[in-house]
Specification:
The structure holds 2 protein chains of 2 kinds. Chain A is an alpha/beta fold. Chain A has 8 helices and 15 strands. In chain A, strand 14 (202-207), helix 7 (213-218) and strand 15 (225-232) form a beta-alpha-beta unit. Chain B has a single domain (12-104, 161-287), classed as Glutaconate Coenzyme A-transferase, CATH 3.40.1080. Helix content of chain B is 30%, strand content 23%. Chain B has helices at residues 12-19, 37-45, 59-67, 88-96, 109-120, 136-139, 188-194, 246-255, 259-269, 274-281, and strands spanning 25-28, 51-54, 71-76, 80-81, 85-86, 103-106, 125-128, 144-147, 154-159, 165-174, 179-181, 197-206, 216-218, 225-228. In chain B, the strands form 3 sheets. In chain B, strands 1, 2, 3, 6, 10, 11, 12, 13 and 14 form a 9-stranded mixed sheet that branches. A 3-stranded antiparallel sheet of chain B has the order 7-9-8, covered by helices on one side. Classes of the chains: A alpha/beta, B alpha/beta. The interface between A and B is large, with 62 and 61 residues.
Protein backbone atom coordinates (compact mmCIF):
# COMPACT_ATOMS: atom_id res chain seq x y z
CA UNK A 1 0.00 0.00 0.00
CA UNK A 2 2.92 2.39 0.61
CA UNK A 3 6.59 2.18 1.49
CA UNK A 4 5.60 0.03 4.44
CA UNK A 5 6.77 2.50 7.06
CA UNK A 6 3.40 3.82 8.18
CA UNK A 7 -0.26 2.83 8.54
CA UNK A 8 -3.31 4.26 6.74
CA UNK A 9 -4.33 6.06 9.95
CA UNK A 10 -0.87 7.56 10.26
CA UNK A 11 -0.78 9.04 6.78
CA UNK A 12 -4.32 10.40 7.31
CA UNK A 13 -3.23 12.12 10.51
CA UNK A 14 0.02 13.50 9.09
CA UNK A 15 -1.71 14.81 5.97
CA UNK A 16 -4.48 16.39 8.07
CA UNK A 17 -1.86 18.10 10.25
CA UNK A 18 -0.26 19.68 7.16
CA UNK A 19 -3.44 21.64 6.50
CA UNK A 20 -2.93 23.69 9.66
CA UNK A 21 -0.60 26.65 9.50
CA UNK A 22 1.51 28.49 12.01
CA UNK A 23 -0.36 31.10 14.12
CA UNK A 24 -3.82 30.09 12.94
CA UNK A 25 -6.56 29.77 15.54
CA UNK A 26 -8.04 26.28 15.37
CA UNK A 27 -11.22 25.11 17.14
CA UNK A 28 -10.54 21.40 17.64
CA UNK A 29 -12.93 18.47 17.81
CA UNK A 30 -12.09 15.42 19.91
CA UNK A 31 -10.64 12.26 18.36
CA UNK A 32 -8.86 12.33 14.97
CA UNK A 33 -8.87 16.16 14.67
CA UNK A 34 -7.31 16.49 18.10
CA UNK A 35 -4.49 14.09 17.17
CA UNK A 36 -3.76 15.92 13.90
CA UNK A 37 -3.96 19.41 15.42
CA UNK A 38 -1.53 18.50 18.19
CA UNK A 39 0.82 16.85 15.69
CA UNK A 40 0.85 20.12 13.72
CA UNK A 41 1.64 22.05 16.92
CA UNK A 42 4.47 19.64 17.79
CA UNK A 43 5.99 19.80 14.29
CA UNK A 44 5.66 22.61 11.75
CA UNK A 45 3.27 24.96 13.61
CA UNK A 46 4.48 25.52 17.20
CA UNK A 47 2.40 28.71 17.52
CA UNK A 48 -0.83 27.16 16.30
CA UNK A 49 -3.54 28.25 18.77
CA UNK A 50 -5.78 25.35 19.82
CA UNK A 51 -9.21 25.98 21.32
CA UNK A 52 -11.45 23.19 22.68
CA UNK A 53 -15.16 23.59 23.31
CA UNK A 54 -14.76 22.88 27.03
CA UNK A 55 -13.13 26.32 27.37
CA UNK A 56 -9.31 25.99 27.18
CA UNK A 57 -7.73 28.60 24.89
CA UNK A 58 -4.21 28.17 23.47
CA UNK A 59 -3.78 24.78 25.13
CA UNK A 60 -0.57 22.75 24.71
CA UNK A 61 -1.34 19.27 26.03
CA UNK A 62 1.58 16.88 26.52
CA UNK A 63 -0.73 13.89 26.07
CA UNK A 64 -3.90 13.77 23.98
CA UNK A 65 -7.14 14.29 25.87
CA UNK A 66 -9.44 11.26 26.08
CA UNK A 67 -12.41 13.54 26.61
CA UNK A 68 -12.84 17.08 25.41
CA UNK A 69 -12.61 18.43 28.97
CA UNK A 70 -9.56 16.61 30.33
CA UNK A 71 -7.56 18.36 33.02
CA UNK A 72 -4.51 18.27 30.77
CA UNK A 73 -6.19 20.80 28.48
CA UNK A 74 -6.96 23.19 31.34
CA UNK A 75 -3.52 22.87 32.96
CA UNK A 76 -1.64 23.70 29.75
CA UNK A 77 -3.93 26.49 28.49
CA UNK A 78 -3.21 30.22 28.46
CA UNK A 79 -6.69 30.73 29.87
CA UNK A 80 -9.86 28.72 30.45
CA UNK A 81 -13.25 30.35 29.88
CA UNK A 82 -16.82 29.20 30.48
CA UNK A 83 -18.72 27.19 27.87
CA UNK A 84 -21.03 30.11 27.12
CA UNK A 85 -18.04 32.34 26.50
CA UNK A 86 -16.13 29.90 24.27
CA UNK A 87 -19.07 29.66 21.88
CA UNK A 88 -20.35 33.23 22.01
CA UNK A 89 -17.24 35.43 22.26
CA UNK A 90 -14.56 33.27 20.67
CA UNK A 91 -16.37 31.24 18.02
CA UNK A 92 -19.42 33.34 17.15
CA UNK A 93 -17.34 36.48 17.76
CA UNK A 94 -15.20 35.52 14.77
CA UNK A 95 -11.81 34.58 16.22
CA UNK A 96 -11.60 31.09 14.75
CA UNK A 97 -9.70 30.52 11.48
CA UNK A 98 -10.17 26.78 11.17
CA UNK A 99 -12.81 24.47 12.57
CA UNK A 100 -11.42 20.94 12.66
CA UNK A 101 -14.10 18.26 12.83
CA UNK A 102 -14.56 14.51 12.74
CA UNK A 103 -17.79 12.85 11.56
CA UNK A 104 -19.69 9.58 11.65
CA UNK A 105 -20.87 10.25 8.11
CA UNK A 106 -20.17 12.83 5.46
CA UNK A 107 -21.97 13.26 2.14
CA UNK A 108 -21.27 14.41 -1.41
CA UNK A 109 -21.70 18.08 -0.39
CA UNK A 110 -19.67 17.72 2.83
CA UNK A 111 -22.66 17.80 5.15
CA UNK A 112 -21.98 16.00 8.43
CA UNK A 113 -24.19 13.53 10.30
CA UNK A 114 -23.38 12.66 13.90
CA UNK A 115 -26.99 12.28 15.06
CA UNK A 116 -28.84 9.20 13.76
CA UNK A 117 -28.73 6.42 11.21
CA UNK A 118 -32.30 5.66 10.18
CA UNK A 119 -35.37 7.70 11.11
CA UNK A 120 -34.92 10.26 13.89
CA UNK A 121 -37.88 8.93 15.89
CA UNK A 122 -36.98 5.27 15.32
CA UNK A 123 -33.24 5.26 14.85
CA UNK A 124 -31.37 2.18 13.69
CA UNK A 125 -28.35 3.64 15.42
CA UNK A 126 -28.48 6.55 17.79
CA UNK A 127 -25.22 8.52 17.54
CA UNK A 128 -24.07 11.04 20.19
CA UNK A 129 -25.49 14.12 18.47
CA UNK A 130 -24.33 17.62 17.71
CA UNK A 131 -22.04 18.84 20.46
CA UNK A 132 -20.26 21.97 19.29
CA UNK A 133 -20.04 20.98 15.63
CA UNK A 134 -23.02 22.82 14.04
CA UNK A 135 -21.79 26.26 15.10
CA UNK A 136 -18.12 25.41 14.53
CA UNK A 137 -19.05 24.35 10.98
CA UNK A 138 -21.01 27.59 10.55
CA UNK A 139 -18.77 30.21 12.17
CA UNK A 140 -15.17 29.09 11.61
CA UNK A 141 -13.62 30.86 8.62
CA UNK A 142 -13.03 27.44 7.04
CA UNK A 143 -13.62 23.82 8.06
CA UNK A 144 -11.47 20.71 7.77
CA UNK A 145 -13.03 17.28 8.17
CA UNK A 146 -11.08 14.13 8.93
CA UNK A 147 -12.55 10.61 8.95
CA UNK A 148 -11.87 7.08 7.74
CA UNK A 149 -13.44 6.45 4.35
CA UNK A 150 -15.87 3.62 3.61
CA UNK A 151 -19.26 3.18 1.94
CA UNK A 152 -20.80 3.41 5.39
CA UNK A 153 -19.16 6.76 6.22
CA UNK A 154 -19.23 8.32 2.74
CA UNK A 155 -22.85 8.52 1.59
CA UNK A 156 -24.53 10.32 -1.28
CA UNK A 157 -26.84 12.22 1.07
CA UNK A 158 -26.78 12.05 4.86
CA UNK A 159 -30.11 11.12 6.44
CA UNK A 160 -29.67 13.85 9.02
CA UNK A 161 -27.68 17.07 8.63
CA UNK A 162 -26.13 17.72 12.03
CA UNK A 163 -23.63 20.27 10.71
CA UNK A 164 -24.00 22.06 7.41
CA UNK A 165 -21.47 21.67 4.64
CA UNK A 166 -22.76 22.93 1.30
CA UNK A 167 -26.30 21.54 1.81
CA UNK A 168 -27.58 20.78 -1.72
CA UNK A 169 -24.52 22.34 -3.31
CA UNK A 170 -23.90 25.41 -5.43
CA UNK A 171 -24.33 28.64 -3.48
CA UNK A 172 -27.01 27.36 -1.07
CA UNK A 173 -24.75 27.73 1.96
CA UNK A 174 -23.90 31.38 1.37
CA UNK A 175 -27.45 32.18 0.27
CA UNK A 176 -28.70 31.08 3.69
CA UNK A 177 -26.27 33.52 5.32
CA UNK A 178 -24.02 30.98 7.01
CA UNK A 179 -20.95 33.10 7.82
CA UNK A 180 -17.96 30.74 7.31
CA UNK A 181 -16.76 29.47 3.93
CA UNK A 182 -17.46 25.85 4.90
CA UNK A 183 -15.38 22.70 4.36
CA UNK A 184 -12.25 23.23 2.27
CA UNK A 185 -10.91 19.68 2.56
CA UNK A 186 -11.99 16.23 3.70
CA UNK A 187 -8.97 14.16 4.68
CA UNK A 188 -9.31 10.38 4.80
CA UNK A 189 -7.15 7.27 5.08
CA UNK A 190 -7.31 6.99 1.26
CA UNK A 191 -6.86 10.54 0.04
CA UNK A 192 -8.00 14.15 0.20
CA UNK A 193 -11.25 15.48 -1.23
CA UNK A 194 -11.97 19.11 -2.04
CA UNK A 195 -15.22 20.81 -3.00
CA UNK A 196 -15.62 21.75 -6.65
CA UNK A 197 -15.45 25.57 -6.72
CA UNK A 198 -18.82 25.87 -8.45
CA UNK A 199 -20.99 22.83 -7.68
CA UNK A 200 -19.40 22.25 -4.24
CA UNK A 201 -19.46 18.50 -4.85
CA UNK A 202 -16.51 16.75 -3.18
CA UNK A 203 -13.88 15.71 -5.71
CA UNK A 204 -10.83 13.54 -5.08
CA UNK A 205 -7.88 15.92 -5.26
CA UNK A 206 -5.16 13.79 -3.76
CA UNK A 207 -4.61 10.06 -3.40
CA UNK A 208 -2.31 8.45 -0.83
CA UNK A 209 0.68 6.40 -2.10
CA UNK A 210 -0.23 2.83 -2.99
CA UNK A 211 -3.98 3.50 -2.98
CA UNK A 212 -5.80 2.95 -6.30
CA UNK A 213 -8.51 5.14 -7.73
CA UNK A 214 -10.82 2.10 -7.84
CA UNK A 215 -10.31 1.63 -4.10
CA UNK A 216 -11.29 5.23 -3.33
CA UNK A 217 -14.32 5.07 -5.62
CA UNK A 218 -15.42 1.77 -4.08
CA UNK A 219 -15.29 3.41 -0.64
CA UNK A 220 -17.77 6.14 -1.58
CA UNK A 221 -21.57 5.89 -1.74
CA UNK A 222 -21.79 8.06 -4.85
CA UNK A 223 -20.04 8.23 -8.18
CA UNK A 224 -16.97 9.99 -6.82
CA UNK A 225 -15.10 12.02 -9.40
CA UNK A 226 -11.35 12.50 -9.42
CA UNK A 227 -9.80 15.84 -10.21
CA UNK A 228 -8.16 16.20 -13.64
CA UNK A 229 -4.88 17.02 -11.88
CA UNK A 230 -5.13 14.30 -9.23
CA UNK A 231 -1.96 14.38 -7.12
CA UNK A 232 -0.28 11.62 -5.16
CA UNK A 233 0.20 12.49 -1.48
CA UNK A 234 3.76 13.06 -0.33
CA UNK A 235 4.92 10.28 2.02
CA UNK A 236 4.97 11.27 5.70
CA UNK A 237 8.40 12.46 6.86
CA UNK A 238 10.10 10.08 9.33
CA UNK A 239 10.31 12.92 11.85
CA UNK A 240 6.54 13.48 11.74
CA UNK A 241 5.91 9.77 12.23
CA UNK A 242 8.30 9.71 15.17
CA UNK A 243 6.55 12.67 16.86
CA UNK A 244 3.12 11.15 16.19
CA UNK A 245 4.09 7.75 17.63
CA UNK A 246 5.69 9.34 20.69
CA UNK A 247 2.54 11.38 21.29
CA UNK A 248 0.34 8.29 21.00
CA UNK A 249 2.62 6.26 23.25
CA UNK A 250 2.60 8.95 25.98
CA UNK A 251 -1.16 9.14 25.65
CA UNK A 252 -1.73 5.38 25.96
CA UNK A 253 0.35 5.22 29.12
CA UNK A 254 -1.50 8.18 30.63
CA UNK A 255 -4.96 6.82 29.81
CA UNK A 256 -4.27 3.30 30.99
CA UNK A 257 -3.24 4.46 34.44
CA UNK A 258 -6.18 3.87 36.75
CA UNK A 259 -6.69 6.90 38.95
CA UNK A 260 -7.29 6.68 42.65
CA UNK A 261 -10.23 8.49 44.21
CA UNK B 1 -34.34 37.39 47.13
CA UNK B 2 -31.27 36.15 49.01
CA UNK B 3 -31.55 32.58 50.15
CA UNK B 4 -30.88 31.39 53.67
CA UNK B 5 -29.19 28.09 53.06
CA UNK B 6 -28.41 25.52 55.66
CA UNK B 7 -24.95 24.89 54.39
CA UNK B 8 -22.45 22.58 55.89
CA UNK B 9 -24.79 21.04 58.46
CA UNK B 10 -26.77 18.93 56.06
CA UNK B 11 -25.83 15.60 54.50
CA UNK B 12 -26.10 14.74 50.83
CA UNK B 13 -29.00 12.35 51.49
CA UNK B 14 -30.87 15.09 53.34
CA UNK B 15 -30.21 17.67 50.64
CA UNK B 16 -31.43 15.38 47.84
CA UNK B 17 -34.42 14.32 49.93
CA UNK B 18 -35.38 17.93 50.59
CA UNK B 19 -34.61 19.65 47.29
CA UNK B 20 -35.20 17.07 44.54
CA UNK B 21 -38.81 16.01 44.02
CA UNK B 22 -40.43 13.51 41.70
CA UNK B 23 -41.30 15.17 38.38
CA UNK B 24 -38.73 17.96 38.79
CA UNK B 25 -36.57 19.32 36.00
CA UNK B 26 -33.02 18.80 37.21
CA UNK B 27 -29.69 20.02 35.85
CA UNK B 28 -26.60 18.20 37.13
CA UNK B 29 -23.91 20.16 35.31
CA UNK B 30 -20.13 19.95 34.91
CA UNK B 31 -18.41 19.77 31.51
CA UNK B 32 -16.33 16.58 31.88
CA UNK B 33 -14.85 18.20 34.98
CA UNK B 34 -16.61 18.40 38.41
CA UNK B 35 -19.55 16.18 37.44
CA UNK B 36 -21.65 15.65 40.59
CA UNK B 37 -21.62 11.82 40.55
CA UNK B 38 -22.17 11.36 44.28
CA UNK B 39 -25.32 13.50 44.14
CA UNK B 40 -26.53 11.59 41.06
CA UNK B 41 -26.08 8.31 42.90
CA UNK B 42 -28.05 9.66 45.83
CA UNK B 43 -30.92 10.54 43.44
CA UNK B 44 -30.84 6.94 42.20
CA UNK B 45 -30.77 5.55 45.75
CA UNK B 46 -33.78 7.63 46.70
CA UNK B 47 -35.48 6.37 43.52
CA UNK B 48 -36.67 9.76 42.32
CA UNK B 49 -39.04 9.39 39.36
CA UNK B 50 -40.22 11.21 36.23
CA UNK B 51 -37.35 13.67 36.23
CA UNK B 52 -36.61 15.90 33.26
CA UNK B 53 -32.84 15.66 33.09
CA UNK B 54 -31.01 18.65 31.64
CA UNK B 55 -27.31 18.44 30.81
CA UNK B 56 -25.16 19.40 27.83
CA UNK B 57 -23.27 16.10 27.91
CA UNK B 58 -25.33 13.38 29.61
CA UNK B 59 -22.07 11.50 30.29
CA UNK B 60 -22.01 8.42 32.53
CA UNK B 61 -24.01 10.19 35.22
CA UNK B 62 -27.19 10.45 33.13
CA UNK B 63 -26.56 7.06 31.54
CA UNK B 64 -26.85 5.75 35.10
CA UNK B 65 -29.91 7.84 36.02
CA UNK B 66 -31.66 6.85 32.77
CA UNK B 67 -30.83 3.16 33.21
CA UNK B 68 -32.02 3.33 36.82
CA UNK B 69 -35.43 4.56 35.65
CA UNK B 70 -35.33 8.08 37.13
CA UNK B 71 -35.90 9.99 33.89
CA UNK B 72 -38.94 10.83 31.78
CA UNK B 73 -37.24 13.32 29.49
CA UNK B 74 -33.71 14.35 28.54
CA UNK B 75 -32.62 17.77 27.29
CA UNK B 76 -29.07 17.54 25.95
CA UNK B 77 -26.59 18.44 23.22
CA UNK B 78 -24.07 15.56 23.04
CA UNK B 79 -24.84 12.06 24.30
CA UNK B 80 -21.71 9.95 24.07
CA UNK B 81 -19.10 8.43 26.37
CA UNK B 82 -16.34 11.01 25.75
CA UNK B 83 -13.42 9.49 23.87
CA UNK B 84 -14.88 5.99 24.22
CA UNK B 85 -18.11 5.69 22.21
CA UNK B 86 -21.78 5.20 22.96
CA UNK B 87 -23.76 5.63 26.13
CA UNK B 88 -25.48 2.25 26.07
CA UNK B 89 -28.23 2.96 28.63
CA UNK B 90 -29.11 6.22 26.83
CA UNK B 91 -29.24 4.36 23.51
CA UNK B 92 -31.26 1.48 24.95
CA UNK B 93 -33.82 4.00 26.25
CA UNK B 94 -34.10 5.81 22.91
CA UNK B 95 -33.87 2.78 20.61
CA UNK B 96 -35.85 0.27 22.72
CA UNK B 97 -37.65 2.24 25.44
CA UNK B 98 -35.84 0.49 28.32
CA UNK B 99 -36.43 0.78 31.24
CA UNK B 100 -39.15 3.16 30.04
CA UNK B 101 -39.80 5.58 27.19
CA UNK B 102 -37.49 8.59 27.17
CA UNK B 103 -38.51 11.83 25.47
CA UNK B 104 -35.63 13.81 24.09
CA UNK B 105 -35.11 17.48 23.34
CA UNK B 106 -31.91 17.85 21.43
CA UNK B 107 -29.76 20.94 20.91
CA UNK B 108 -26.23 21.98 20.01
CA UNK B 109 -23.72 22.94 22.70
CA UNK B 110 -23.72 26.60 21.67
CA UNK B 111 -27.50 26.77 21.98
CA UNK B 112 -27.62 25.05 25.35
CA UNK B 113 -24.84 27.18 26.80
CA UNK B 114 -26.66 30.31 25.65
CA UNK B 115 -29.95 28.95 27.04
CA UNK B 116 -28.32 28.63 30.47
CA UNK B 117 -27.00 32.19 30.16
CA UNK B 118 -30.50 33.42 29.29
CA UNK B 119 -31.89 31.57 32.30
CA UNK B 120 -29.33 33.14 34.62
CA UNK B 121 -30.08 36.53 33.03
CA UNK B 122 -33.79 36.24 33.75
CA UNK B 123 -34.62 36.31 30.04
CA UNK B 124 -37.21 34.06 28.38
CA UNK B 125 -34.99 32.94 25.49
CA UNK B 126 -31.56 33.28 24.00
CA UNK B 127 -30.40 34.03 20.47
CA UNK B 128 -27.46 32.70 18.54
CA UNK B 129 -26.14 32.55 15.00
CA UNK B 130 -26.62 28.85 14.58
CA UNK B 131 -28.63 25.87 13.39
CA UNK B 132 -29.02 27.27 9.85
CA UNK B 133 -29.06 24.47 7.31
CA UNK B 134 -29.12 21.72 9.95
CA UNK B 135 -31.96 19.25 10.55
CA UNK B 136 -32.15 19.84 14.31
CA UNK B 137 -34.93 22.52 14.10
CA UNK B 138 -37.04 20.00 12.18
CA UNK B 139 -37.19 17.66 15.16
CA UNK B 140 -37.07 20.13 18.05
CA UNK B 141 -39.95 22.61 18.19
CA UNK B 142 -37.99 24.60 20.76
CA UNK B 143 -35.55 25.75 18.10
CA UNK B 144 -37.09 28.70 16.28
CA UNK B 145 -35.88 31.69 14.33
CA UNK B 146 -36.29 35.40 14.95
CA UNK B 147 -35.38 38.48 12.99
CA UNK B 148 -32.99 41.05 14.42
CA UNK B 149 -35.05 44.27 14.83
CA UNK B 150 -32.03 46.37 13.84
CA UNK B 151 -30.37 44.55 10.96
CA UNK B 152 -33.03 42.09 9.84
CA UNK B 153 -30.63 39.17 10.27
CA UNK B 154 -32.30 35.82 10.89
CA UNK B 155 -31.07 34.28 14.15
CA UNK B 156 -31.87 31.08 16.04
CA UNK B 157 -33.76 31.30 19.33
CA UNK B 158 -34.05 28.71 22.09
CA UNK B 159 -35.97 28.96 25.38
CA UNK B 160 -34.01 29.76 28.55
CA UNK B 161 -33.13 26.88 30.84
CA UNK B 162 -35.01 27.36 34.12
CA UNK B 163 -34.77 24.08 36.05
CA UNK B 164 -36.42 23.31 39.37
CA UNK B 165 -33.06 22.16 40.72
CA UNK B 166 -29.42 22.59 39.76
CA UNK B 167 -26.79 20.36 41.30
CA UNK B 168 -23.09 21.06 40.87
CA UNK B 169 -19.80 19.96 42.42
CA UNK B 170 -17.03 22.45 43.27
CA UNK B 171 -13.61 22.40 44.87
CA UNK B 172 -14.16 24.48 48.01
CA UNK B 173 -16.65 26.16 50.27
CA UNK B 174 -16.01 28.36 53.27
CA UNK B 175 -17.88 28.10 56.57
CA UNK B 176 -20.63 30.44 55.42
CA UNK B 177 -21.22 28.30 52.32
CA UNK B 178 -19.60 30.54 49.68
CA UNK B 179 -18.41 28.23 46.91
CA UNK B 180 -15.27 28.43 44.74
CA UNK B 181 -14.51 26.46 41.58
CA UNK B 182 -11.77 26.66 38.99
CA UNK B 183 -10.46 24.90 35.88
CA UNK B 184 -13.06 23.95 33.29
CA UNK B 185 -16.11 25.64 34.78
CA UNK B 186 -18.58 24.81 31.99
CA UNK B 187 -22.04 26.27 32.59
CA UNK B 188 -22.17 25.64 36.34
CA UNK B 189 -22.37 29.28 37.42
CA UNK B 190 -25.24 29.85 35.00
CA UNK B 191 -26.91 26.58 36.05
CA UNK B 192 -26.83 27.62 39.71
CA UNK B 193 -28.19 31.09 38.97
CA UNK B 194 -31.01 29.95 36.67
CA UNK B 195 -32.43 27.24 38.94
CA UNK B 196 -35.12 27.59 41.60
CA UNK B 197 -33.16 25.40 44.05
CA UNK B 198 -29.43 24.73 44.15
CA UNK B 199 -27.46 21.94 45.80
CA UNK B 200 -23.67 22.07 45.79
CA UNK B 201 -21.25 19.35 46.84
CA UNK B 202 -17.62 20.34 47.52
CA UNK B 203 -14.30 18.60 48.02
CA UNK B 204 -13.51 20.49 51.21
CA UNK B 205 -14.62 23.20 53.60
CA UNK B 206 -11.97 25.81 54.34
CA UNK B 207 -11.60 28.81 56.63
CA UNK B 208 -10.92 31.23 53.77
CA UNK B 209 -11.47 30.64 50.04
CA UNK B 210 -8.50 32.87 49.15
CA UNK B 211 -10.21 33.52 45.84
CA UNK B 212 -8.84 35.99 43.31
CA UNK B 213 -11.20 38.91 42.67
CA UNK B 214 -12.34 37.46 39.33
CA UNK B 215 -12.54 33.86 40.45
CA UNK B 216 -15.67 31.81 39.86
CA UNK B 217 -17.44 32.16 43.21
CA UNK B 218 -21.08 31.50 44.04
CA UNK B 219 -22.16 33.47 47.13
CA UNK B 220 -23.83 31.38 49.84
CA UNK B 221 -27.07 33.33 49.53
CA UNK B 222 -27.62 31.97 45.99
CA UNK B 223 -27.49 28.35 47.22
CA UNK B 224 -29.86 26.09 49.14
CA UNK B 225 -27.49 23.43 50.39
CA UNK B 226 -23.73 23.04 50.44
CA UNK B 227 -22.46 19.61 51.40
CA UNK B 228 -18.93 18.33 51.77
CA UNK B 229 -18.52 15.19 49.66
CA UNK B 230 -14.83 14.49 49.11
CA UNK B 231 -14.42 12.55 45.86
CA UNK B 232 -17.96 13.54 44.90
CA UNK B 233 -17.03 14.09 41.24
CA UNK B 234 -15.27 10.76 40.66
CA UNK B 235 -14.93 9.13 38.11
CA UNK B 236 -14.85 12.60 36.54
CA UNK B 237 -12.24 14.81 38.14
CA UNK B 238 -11.69 17.73 40.47
CA UNK B 239 -8.74 19.84 39.37
CA UNK B 240 -6.27 20.15 42.20
CA UNK B 241 -7.69 17.06 43.98
CA UNK B 242 -7.83 14.03 41.70
CA UNK B 243 -7.60 13.12 38.01
CA UNK B 244 -10.29 11.79 35.71
CA UNK B 245 -10.56 8.03 36.01
CA UNK B 246 -10.20 7.45 32.26
CA UNK B 247 -9.83 3.72 32.86
CA UNK B 248 -13.30 3.63 34.44
CA UNK B 249 -14.81 5.58 31.54
CA UNK B 250 -13.40 2.89 29.24
CA UNK B 251 -14.64 0.07 31.51
CA UNK B 252 -18.14 1.64 31.55
CA UNK B 253 -18.50 0.65 27.91
CA UNK B 254 -18.41 -3.00 28.98
CA UNK B 255 -20.32 -2.60 32.26
CA UNK B 256 -23.25 -0.77 30.66
CA UNK B 257 -23.44 -2.73 27.41
CA UNK B 258 -26.06 -5.16 28.75
CA UNK B 259 -29.01 -4.48 31.06
CA UNK B 260 -27.88 -7.26 33.39
CA UNK B 261 -24.33 -5.96 33.59
CA UNK B 262 -25.60 -2.48 34.33
CA UNK B 263 -28.09 -3.56 37.00
CA UNK B 264 -25.54 -5.67 38.75
CA UNK B 265 -23.10 -2.75 38.77
CA UNK B 266 -25.85 -0.46 40.06
CA UNK B 267 -26.75 -2.78 42.91
CA UNK B 268 -23.18 -3.28 43.92
CA UNK B 269 -21.97 0.31 43.61
CA UNK B 270 -24.98 2.52 44.26
CA UNK B 271 -27.79 0.73 46.11
CA UNK B 272 -25.41 -1.13 48.42
CA UNK B 273 -24.61 2.28 49.96
CA UNK B 274 -28.22 3.04 50.88
CA UNK B 275 -28.40 2.20 54.53
CA UNK B 276 -25.15 4.00 55.25
CA UNK B 277 -26.07 7.35 53.71
CA UNK B 278 -29.65 7.37 54.97
CA UNK B 279 -28.65 6.45 58.47
CA UNK B 280 -26.10 9.24 58.48
CA UNK B 281 -28.80 11.61 57.34
CA UNK B 282 -31.25 10.43 59.95
CA UNK B 283 -33.80 9.57 57.28
CA UNK B 284 -36.09 6.59 57.59
CA UNK B 285 -35.76 4.64 54.34
CA UNK B 286 -39.35 3.40 54.68
CA UNK B 287 -40.68 6.93 54.37
CA UNK B 288 -39.00 7.67 51.04
Amino acid sequence: MNNGHYTADEIMTVVASRFLQESQVCFVGIGLPSVAANLARLTHAPNLVLIYESGPIDTKPDVLPLSIGDGELAKTATTVVSTGEIFSYWLQGGWVDVGFLGAAQVDKFANINTTVIGAYDRPKVRLPGAGGAPEIAASAREVLIVLRQSRRTFVEKVEFITSAGFLDGGDERSRLGIPGAGPTAVITDLGVLRPDPKTKELVLAQIHPGVTLEQVKAAAGWDLRASADLAVTEEPAPENLRVLRELKRRTEIAHAAAQSK
Amino acid sequence: MPKTPTPLTTTLAQAIHEFVRDGDSVALEGFTHLIPFAAGHEIIRQQKKNLTLIRMTPDLIYDQLIGAGCARKLIFSWGGNPGVGSLHRFRDAIENGWPGPLQIEEHSHAAMASAYTAGASGLPFSILRGYTGTDLPRYNEHIRFVQCPFTGERLAAVPAVRPDVAIIHAQKADHRGNVLMWGIVGVQKEAALCAKRVVVTVEEIVEDLQADPNACVLPFWTLDAVVKVAGGASPSYAMGYYDRDNAFYKRWDEISRTREGFLSWLNENVFRQQSVSLTLAGIDAEKL
